[in-house]
Amino acid sequence: MASQAAPNVPVYSGNDLKSTTDDALAPYLTTLPQPYTFAQDHSKTNVRFILGYSAVIIAGFTFYADRKLGWEATQSTWVLAAVASYFILNTFLTYWIWAVEAGEVFRGTRKSGETISISSSCKKHSPLYKIRVQYKSSSSKILQEKEAEAPFTTWFSANGAFHPEPLRQWLANEVEVLRLAAKERK
């Protein structure tokens, strides 16, 4: 079997560069050597899916009812309640994404109870990838809180090929627990 090379990312698309980098964090943090491995927490993503799919189901149901029953039959209170529910769910979903998740791309817990939360951002037309890391003990005491930034060119080549090792080295230089894991890996 030949290994598949990662597809090239358009180097002038900040969104694609950020998404590819964000997607590389979870595989890295969940495959660190023991005892540094983080188990990813999907609870915020699950809430997002529940809200989003509930709104889609309501929209699909009202569309189906309108299509099968006609306009006059769908001017009842249950359709108005469904439409109001749809807008309430979407409003709460928007709030959830912007205020609760707030750019978080990874949340994980070690077996010892420590948690790490990584949020990322990239300004429009900027070549810099910014992260905010919060590392807490099992008693919720903040062990490390740091903001860092680096150019995408550190781990993307000129043709858009992603190289994960420079990203891992940069993260290890910025986050103490990842530095310890990198020493363990060597």
Task: Please describe the structure with a list of short key phrases separated by commas or semicolons.
Signal peptidase complex subunit 2; 186 residues; 5 helices; alpha+beta; 5-stranded antiparallel beta sheet; elongated; transmembrane helix; membrane; Spc2/SPCS2
Structure description:
Belongs to the SPCS2 family. The chain crosses the membrane at residues 47-65, 77-98. It is a single chain. With 186 residues, the chain is of the alpha+beta class. It has two domains: 14-41 and 103-185; 44-101. The chain has five helices and five strands, in the order H-E-H-H-E-E-E-E-H-H. It has a five-stranded antiparallel beta sheet, covered by helices on one side. Strand 3 (115-121) and strand 4 (128-136) form a beta hairpin. The two termini are 28 Å apart.
Summarize the structure.
The chain has 186 residues and is an alpha+beta fold.
What are the SSEs and their pairings?
Layout: H1 14-29, E1 39-40, H2 43-69, H3 77-101, E2 104-109, E3 115-121, E4 128-136, E5 142-151, H4 164-174, H5 176-185
GO biological process, one term: signal peptide processing
Pfam families: SPC25
Family: Belongs to the SPCS2 family.
